[in-house]
Design brief:
Elements: H1 2-18, E1 26-31, E2 36-41, E3 45-50, E4 53-57, E5 78-80, E6 87-91, E7 97-104, E8 109-116, E9 121-124, E10 131-139, E11 145-152
Antiparallel strand pairs: 1-2, 3-4, 5-6, 6-9, 7-8, 7-10, 10-11
Length: about 150
């Protein structure tokens, strides 16, 4: 009797381990640091056993979740003149500390400096050649961010 229970237990254990496999005609899996994606084509069989009990065979059960990592937008930023020749004036929406960065279209950071908003802030762009740049401004207290294209003439 004891050997019968041990035999049935081993059989059920082996069956449950095998239940995690899929025999499908096609499938693929790809992984990156942010996303894991997989699909498979198997035996498309669905049976409804009762009220809300559905048995699926050959289908992957979809599980998806998304997490927003985008910082909030910085509203009320004044920036003039744009296009600019020498001096760009920034009127910051709230008093506090900010991080100002200016990028070339290649992604190279040309300016990276902390600023404080007590009065309008003037930024000299006289040393830069004519072109299009991206100004990014991050508010330290809230993490709010603004990204504005700037045209240097």
């Amino acid at each position: 009797m004891k050997s019968l229970f041990i035999g049935l237990g081993c059989l059920m254990l082996a069956g449950s381990l095998h239940a995690q496999q899929l025999v499908g005609s096609a499938g693929q899996s790809a992984t990156s640091p942010q996303v894991q994606l997989s699909y498979s084509l198997g035996e498309p069989v669905i049976a409804t056993l009762g009220g809300n009990v559905i048995l699926t065979q050959g289908f992957q059960q979809v599980e998806g979740s998304a997490t927003s990592v985008r910082p909030p937008a910085l509203k009320g930023l004044g920036l003039y003149p744009n296009p600019v020749t020498d001096w760009l004036t920034l009127e910051l929406p709230d008093p506090g500390f900010y991080r100002l960065r200016l990028f070339a279209l290649t992604g190279q950071a040309l300016i990276d400096q902390p600023i404080q908003s007590l009065t309008p802030y003037r930024l000299s762009l006289a040393q830069l050649p004519a072109g299009v740049y991206t100004l990014m401004l991050d508010q330290r207290a809230t993490g709010a961010r603004a990204s504005v294209p700037v045209l240097r003439q």
